[in-house]
Design brief:
Elements (H helix, E strand, L loop, with lengths): L2 E2 L4 E2 L29 H20 L5 E2 L2 E5 L19 E4 L2 H6 L7 H6 L23 H35 L3 E7 L11 E8 L2 E7 L8 E7 L10 E6 L8 E6 L2 E8 L2 E4 L9
Antiparallel strand pairs: 1-2, 3-4, 4-5, 6-7, 7-8, 8-9, 10-11, 11-12, 12-13
Length: 283
């Protein structure tokens, strides 16, 4: 039943009349339908839209896939003439995933900055995450004990070296090299209180030697070889002299001091002699 623009309405044509028995010899008349108002602009838009869709369906393949993903494109209805001048807005391209492919998509964690952007919305930020405390390093007590022992040994060795160096430095200043000690005493060997006997004690290459100059006269010099020292560094040991009556005979006897050792020479017959066996003295 087409539209008749001359009569501004629709009318039936042959074959479109209702099924009714037509009387023989009767004349068929056109039946005019009631008039109805239509929006011509809307009808034209619908017709152009339908033509555009049919042309698009013919021009594109039946199935368009991209790596198993079906893509359906939707265009804005404002392109009423179908020439494609109107650009589709963002979001009109939709992707549909197969259920099997959706299950294989890996989970991508959110960026750390996303926590900061969601502050105040009940979302955890980086400040709310508890800090991981580093594991405390434990040292075995044997390690500490060993280190303490090494430190003590180093201190002892250093202290011994410093003490030995300081002692030798003072002995060098007082006794020189070789170690020499000099003193005067009135021992009754051609001397007097104003002209005393001069004594020199030497440590000459570990040999202890005493030189006596009676009354200061070098022509009457006497030399006493006392002893020999043994051991490393003994050539640096100083020797000193003192005079004391150790046997009670009224004469000053000689006492030779070597470190913590004392050797006595008895004043006898104008000279000095070693102790005799069984002879007692009082130091």
């Amino acid at each position: 039943m087409p539209y008749n623009p001359t009569k501004r309405g629709y009318s039936y044509v042959d074959g479109e009349l209702p099924n009714s028995q037509r009387q023989p010899g009767t004349t068929r008349t056109a039946q005019v339908l009631p008039r109805k108002n239509y929006d011509t602009a809307e009808l034209a838009r619908q017709a152009r839209h339908q033509a555009r869709e049919e042309a698009r369906q013919r021009n594109r393949p039946e199935t368009h896939t991209n790596a198993g993903i079906h893509v359906d494109e939707e265009y804005d209805d404002s392109d009423i003439d179908g020439n494609g001048d109107v650009w589709p807005s963002q979001g009109n391209v939709r992707f549909q995933f197969h259920p099997d492919q959706v299950q294989n998509i890996p989970h991508i964690p959110p960026r750390s900055s996303a926590y900061q952007q969601e502050q105040g919305r009940g979302v955890k930020n980086t400040e709310d995450i508890p800090a991981v405390k580093p594991e405390r390093f434990h040292v075995h007590w044997l390690v500490i004990f060993s280190l303490g022992m090494l430190v003590m040994i180093a201190l002892w060795a250093g202290g011994s070296y410093v003490t030995s160096w300081w002692t030798n430095h003072q002995n060098d200043s007082a006794y020189g090299m070789p170690r020499t000690y000099q003193t005067d005493a009135n021992v009754g060997h051609n001397d007097s209180s104003t002209n005393k006997t001069h004594f020199i004690a030497l440590n000459l290459n570990r040999h202890i030697i005493i030189i006596e100059l009676p009354g200061g006269d070098s022509s009457k010099a006497k030399i006493y070889s006392v002893t020999t020292l043994y051991g490393d560094g003994q050539d640096l040991t100083p020797v000193t002299l003192t005079f004391k009556d150790v046997n009670g005979d009224g004469l000053l006897d000689m006492e030779i001091h070597i470190q913590d050792q004392t050797i006595v020479l008895i004043n006898d017959n104008g000279g000095f002699r070693p102790l005799k066996p069984g002879e007692h003295v009082s130091l």
